[in-house]
Structure to design on (928 residues):
C-alpha cells in the first residue's frame, strides 16, 4: 500500500504596502552626481535661501508690534528673538542627495531564493531587485524634472535646512499632514546622547559611564549658546518652517517635559496662532520622575493645527468597565424583566452577570426650558419639573417607553441608560495607559513609546498621508507610520540615530491590515454589513483599511426611531389576546384586561395552569418583541469606527516598504578598475562648484576645533590641540594646529583643511591639500568635512611619504546657526571615522565572490601610528553586488554578532528560509 506523501507546510507571503501612483516625489540626484554643473542639475549650484515671514499669515511683523497694546496683548520675549530682520526668517535650502536605497522585502526574498536553490525547489517569483520602481540601472535619472514612485525617507542634516529644502526644492509645501516634533526638552543642557547602536545605558554626568568605550558624546551637542534663549529660538525657527509644510488640515505635535511646557506653548501660540491651539495632552511614561517634593509621572504633548476649522480628526476610543468607573450603574435587569442590585463581584467582573442581563442607571428625562404637557406612564400622569421640559418630547418619550427605557418613581420619571449602549469612551487629554503595552526593546536612550505617537497619528491622519519627524531619534515615528500605512520623512543630525532607525525598519515585522480597496477587504466589508458590494478594486491605500466598528446608542436615536412604532404595532394584537386570557383565568383581574405594566414577572402560586400558560406566552412575546426593538435600535444607531483596530490578514507577514537614506552632503563613489586604479563616472562633466565658504564659516570652524579637538572611537585617542590658528599661506589649508603626540615625544604640527559647507570633499581636493601640507612641512593633514567621496584616501599615506592624512567627519548640527549651539569644547563636532579593512575572495570552483570585513583602521595619536581594530564594534554593514555607478542599493545587509534581528520573522518563514540563511545575517563574511 502506497504511503501518503508528506503534507507540505503552507508558505507565508511576505508583503509590503505599495503607495498609490498619485503619491509621488521629485527624483533626487544620487550623491554620485554632486559634481555635475549647475546648468545640468537645477538648483545644485548656488544654494537657495528661503525667506519665511514671521508675522501672522505672512503679515509684516513690525506692523504687528506697532498695533500691539502692551497692556492688553502680552508677548513672549527672549534674548535674541529679534536678531537680524524683524520680519523674516532666512534659511538655506541645500539640495538633498540620495545615499542608499533600502528595500526590506528584497532582503527577505533573497534569503528565500537561496533556500529554494538549496532545496532544488522552484524559486520565488521575485528576483533580486525585481519590481522596485525607480531602481532600474538602465533608466537615466531626471532628478527634479520628473516624478518617481514614492519611497519613504531618512535624511541626515539639520532639520531647519532640510525642511526648507523639502518646501522649496521638492514642492512639499502644504502637503504634510502631521509633524511630530520631539526636541530636546531644554533641560540639563549638558545632556548626553547615545554614541553607539549597541547600548542605551547613557546617564547624564555619570563619570563611570564616560570611561566606557566608546566614550559618551553629546547628543546634538545640545549645549545651547544662550541657554533657554537659544533653545526657544531653535524651536521657533523650526516650527515656522514646519508650519509652512503643513496642509490646511494638518497638525503639529510637540513633545515636551513640564520644565518648559509653558514656554513652548507660548512659542507655538505665536507661530500657529492661539486660535489654532487644540490641546495639551498628558501621557504617562514607563518610569516616573522623582523629586524632593511632588513626583512627576510623565510628559506632555502640545497639539496645534494649521487651521483649526479645517483640522482632520479621527476620534479614538478606549474600552472601559462602565460599571466600575461609574457607580450609578447599579441595577441589573434580567432577561425576563426582573431588576435587582448589582453585586460587588459582578461590578468588577461583568462576565459574572447572567446571560441576557443588562446593567443600567437612571438618567434625567427633562432639560432646562419651558413647561411641557404631562406624560402618561403606567397609569400615572407625570409633569416635568418646574422650568423644565421633556428632553425627547412626548412622542419621543412614548417610543422610549415602548423600548423599555422609562422608569417611574413616586413623583417623577427617568430614562434608562444601559452600560452596553457603548462601553467605549473617547480619549481625553489624559493618557494614563501609555506606560505599558510596549513590547519593543528600547534601542535609543530617549526612545518614545510607540503607543504615544500612534495615538497622535491615528487621530489626525489617514493611510497614505505624509508624516514628518524633524528629530528622528530611534525612528519611532517612522516605525509607527510604516505600521499604519502612512508615508514618512524623518530627519536627524546624528548618524547613530539614523543607523538605529535604518536597522529597526529593515528588520521590522508588521501586521498586514486588510485594505478597503482590495478583494479581501470588500469581502470582509460585506461580511460585516450584510450588504452586497459590487465594484472594482485597485489596492489604493488612500481608501484606508477595513476597521472594526461598534454601535453608539443614544436616547435621541431611540426617540427618533419610527420603526419602534411599527414593531410595537406588529405585536399589539397578540399581546392584547394573551392579556385577555389572563383576565379570564386569573381571579384578581376580575375579568378586566390588565395593561402590560400590570402583569407580574412571576406567576403567583394560586394561578391555574391556563393562567400560567398564558403568562409564559406573554413573557416570551415581550422577550421576542424587545429583541426585535433592540436590533432596530442598534441598526439605526451611530456607528463608531475603531481606527486603531483594522482587520488583519493572518496569512500574510508585512515588512517595511522601500525607503532611502539621504543627506545634504553627498557621498560620491568611484569605480575600482581591475588594475586597482579608480575612475570617476562623472569626471567628464564635472566642474568646480562655488562652495560658498565665507570667512565666518571657516573662522567659526577653527574656533570650535580649537576648543573641542577631534574624537575617535576610544576616549584616550582624542586629539587635543594646544593651539589652532588661521593659516594664510595656502589655497586649501585653512589653519594650523599644534599638539603633543605623547609624553616625551616631539610636538606634532597639523595642517587643517575644511570641506564645503554643503557638499563632499573630492579626491582631487584631498590631493591638492596633501600636496600643500607637504610643501608646508606639516606632520599631519587633518581634513574636516561633512562628507567625503569614496577613495579619498587613495594615494595619501603611501604616495606622500611620512605625512599622515586624517579625515574628520563634522557633525551635521554645525550647520545650525552659530547662536544656537555653544562651543564648550565638551562636545564632539569633529569625529575621525576609521577606514574599513575588507578582503575579497573567490569561492572555490565557482566564479562567485565573497567580501569579508576584518575591522577598521584608526589613527592612534599617542603612538602616531595607524592601528587595526577588529569588527566587534561594527553594528551593520551593507553590500551592493550590482553597483550601477549612480546610487548605493543595499542588496546584502549584515548585522555582525546579532543573530536575533530577524527573530520576529522566523516562526512565520521557517518553512521558506532555512537556518543557514538566518545565521548568515550575523556574519562578517558576505554570502556569495
Amino acid at each position: 500500500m502506497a504511503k501518503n506523501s508528506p503534507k507540505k507546510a503552507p508558505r507565508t507571503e511576505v508583503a509590503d504596502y505599495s503607495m498609490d501612483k498619485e503619491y509621488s516625489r521629485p527624483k533626487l540626484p544620487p550623491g554620485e552626481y554632486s559634481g555635475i554643473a549647475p546648468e545640468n542639475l537645477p538648483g545644485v549650484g548656488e544654494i537657495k535661501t528661503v525667506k519665511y515671514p514671521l508675522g501672522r499669515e505672512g503679515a509684516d511683523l513690525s506692523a504687528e508690534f506697532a498695533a500691539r497694546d502692551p497692556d492688553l496683548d502680552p508677548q513672549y520675549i527672549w534674548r535674541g528673538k529679534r536678531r537680524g530682520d524683524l520680519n523674516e526668517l532666512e534659511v538655506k535650502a541645500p539640495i538633498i542627495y540620495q545615499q542608499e536605497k533600502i528595500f526590506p522585502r528584497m532582503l527577505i526574498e533573497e534569503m528565500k531564493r537561496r533556500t529554494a536553490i538549496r532545496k532544488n525547489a522552484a524559486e520565488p517569483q521575485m528576483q533580486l531587485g525585481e519590481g522596485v520602481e525607480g531602481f532600474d540601472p538602465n533608466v537615466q535619472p531626471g532628478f527634479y524634472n520628473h516624478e518617481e514612485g514614492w519611497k519613504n525617507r531618512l535624511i541626515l542634516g539639520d532639520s531647519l535646512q532640510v525642511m526648507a529644502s523639502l518646501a522649496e526644492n521638492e514642492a512639499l509645501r502644504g502637503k504634510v499632514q502631521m509633524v511630530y516634533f520631539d526636541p530636546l526638552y531644554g533641560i540639563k543642557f549638558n545632556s548626553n546622547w547615545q554614541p553607539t547602536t549597541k547600548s542605551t545605558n547613557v546617564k547624564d554626568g555619570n563619570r563611570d559611564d564616560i570611561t566606557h568605550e566608546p566614550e559618551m558624546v553629546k547628543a546634538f551637542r545640545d549645549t545651547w549658546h544662550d541657554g533657554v534663549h537659544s533653545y526657544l529660538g531653535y524651536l521657533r525657527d523650526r516650527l515656522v518652517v514646519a508650519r509652512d509644510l503643513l496642509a490646511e488640515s494638518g497638525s503639529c505635535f510637540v513633545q515636551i517635559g513640564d520644565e518648559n511646557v509653558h514656554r513652548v506653548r507660548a512659542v507655538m501660540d505665536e507661530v500657529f496662532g492661539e486660535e489654532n491651539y487644540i490641546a495639551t495632552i498628558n501621557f504617562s511614561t514607563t518610569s516616573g520622575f522623582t523629586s524632593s517634593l511632588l513626583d512627576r509621572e510623565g510628559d506632555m504633548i502640545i497639539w496645534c493645527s494649521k487651521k483649526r476649522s479645517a483640522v482632520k480628526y479621527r476620534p479614538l476610543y478606549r474600552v472601559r468597565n462602565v460599571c466600575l468607573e461609574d457607580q450609578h450603574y447599579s441595577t441589573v435587569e434580567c432577561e425576563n424583566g426582573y431588576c435587582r442590585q448589582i453585586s460587588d463581584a459582578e461590578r468588577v467582573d461583568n462576565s459574572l452577570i447572567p446571560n441576557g442581563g443588562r446593567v443600567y442607571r437612571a438618567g434625567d428625562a427633562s432639560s432646562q426650558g419651558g413647561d411641557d404637557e404631562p406624560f402618561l406612564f403606567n397609569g400615572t400622569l407625570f409633569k416635568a419639573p418646574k422650568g423644565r421640559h421633556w428632553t425627547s418630547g412626548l412622542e419621543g418619550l412614548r417610543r422610549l417607553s415602548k423600548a423599555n427605557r422609562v422608569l417611574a418613581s413616586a413623583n417623577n420619571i427617568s430614562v434608562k441608560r444601559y452600560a452596553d449602549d457603548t462601553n467605549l469612551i473617547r480619549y481625553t487629554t489624559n493618557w494614563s495607559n501609555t506606560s505599558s503595552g510596549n513590547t519593543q526593546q528600547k534601542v535609543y536612550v530617549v526612545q518614545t513609546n510607540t503607543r504615544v505617537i500612534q495615538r497622535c497619528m491615528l487621530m489626525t491622519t489617514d493611510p497614505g498621508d505624509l508624516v514628518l519627524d524633524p528629530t528622528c531619534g530611534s525612528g519611532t515615528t517612522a516605525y509607527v507610520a510604516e505600521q499604519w500605512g502612512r508615508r514618512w520623512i524623518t530627519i536627524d543630525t546624528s548618524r547613530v540615530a539614523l543607523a538605529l532607525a535604518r536597522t529597526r525598519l529593515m528588520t521590522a515585522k508588521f501586521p498586514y491590515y486588510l485594505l478597503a480597496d482590495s478583494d479581501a477587504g470588500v469581502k470582509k466589508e460585506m461580511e460585516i454589513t450584510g450588504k452586497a458590494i459590487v465594484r472594482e478594486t485597485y489596492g489604493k491605500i488612500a481608501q484606508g483599511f477595513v476597521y472594526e466598528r461598534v454601535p453608539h446608542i443614544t436616547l435621541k436615536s431611540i426617540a427618533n426611531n419610527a420603526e419602534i412604532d411599527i414593531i410595537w404595532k406588529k405585536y399589539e394584537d397578540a399581546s392584547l389576546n394573551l392579556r385577555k386570557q389572563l383576565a379570564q383565568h386569573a381571579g384578581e383581574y376580575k375579568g378586566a384586561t390588565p395593561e402590560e405594566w400590570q402583569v407580574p414577572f412571576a406567576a403567583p402560586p394560586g394561578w391555574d395552569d391556563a393562567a400560567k400558560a398564558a403568562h409564559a406566552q406573554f413573557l416570551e412575546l415581550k422577550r421576542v418583541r424587545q429583541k426585535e426593538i433592540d436590533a432596530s435600535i442598534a441598526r439605526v444607531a451611530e456607528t463608531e469606527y475603531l481606527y486603531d483596530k483594522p482587520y488583519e490578514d493572518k496569512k500574510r507577514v508585512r515588512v517595511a516598504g522601500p525607503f532611502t537614506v539621504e543627506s545634504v552632503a553627498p557621498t560620491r563613489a568611484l569605480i575600482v578598475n581591475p588594475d586597482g586604479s579608480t575612475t570617476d563616472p562623472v569626471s567628464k562633466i564635472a566642474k568646480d562648484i562655488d562652495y560658498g565658504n565665507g570667512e565666518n564659516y571657516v573662522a567659526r570652524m577653527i574656533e570650535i576645533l580649537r576648543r573641542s579637538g577631534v574624537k575617535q572611537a576610544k576616549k584616550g585617542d582624542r586629539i587635543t590641540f594646544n593651539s589652532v590658528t588661521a593659516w594664510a599661506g595656502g589655497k586649501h589649508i585653512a589653519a594650523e594646529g599644534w599638539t603633543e603626540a605623547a609624553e616625551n615625544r616631539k610636538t606634532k604640527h597639523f595642517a587643517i583643511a575644511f570641506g564645503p559647507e554643503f557638499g563632499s570633499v573630492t579626491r582631487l581636493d584631498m590631493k591638492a591639500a596633501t600636496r600643500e601640507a607637504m610643501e608646508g612641512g606639516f606632520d599631519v593633514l587633518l581634513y574636516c568635512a561633512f562628507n567625503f567621496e569614496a577613495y579619498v584616501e587613495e594615494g595619501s599615506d603611501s604616495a606622500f611619504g611620512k605625512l599622515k592624512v586624517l579625515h574628520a567627519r563634522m557633525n551635521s548640527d554645525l550647520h545650525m546657526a552659530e547662536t544656537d549651539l555653544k562651543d564648550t569644547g565638551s562636545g564632539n563636532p569633529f569625529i575621525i571615522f576609521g577606514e574599513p579593512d575588507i578582503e575579497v575572495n573567490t569561492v572555490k570552483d565557482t566564479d562567485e565572490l565573497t567580501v569579508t570585513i576584518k575591522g577598521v583602521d584608526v589613527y592612534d595619536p599617542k603612538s602616531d601610528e595607524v592601528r587595526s581594530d577588529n569588527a566587534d564594534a561594527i553594528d551593520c554593514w551593507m553590500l551592493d553586488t550590482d553597483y550601477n555607478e549612480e546610487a548605493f542599493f543595499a542588496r546584502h545587509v549584515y548585522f555582525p554578532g546579532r543573530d536575533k534581528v530577524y527573530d520576529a520573522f522566523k516562526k512565520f518563514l521557517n518553512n521558506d528560509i532555512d537556518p543557514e540563511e538566518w545565521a548568515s545575517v550575523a556574519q562578517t563574511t558576505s554570502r556569495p
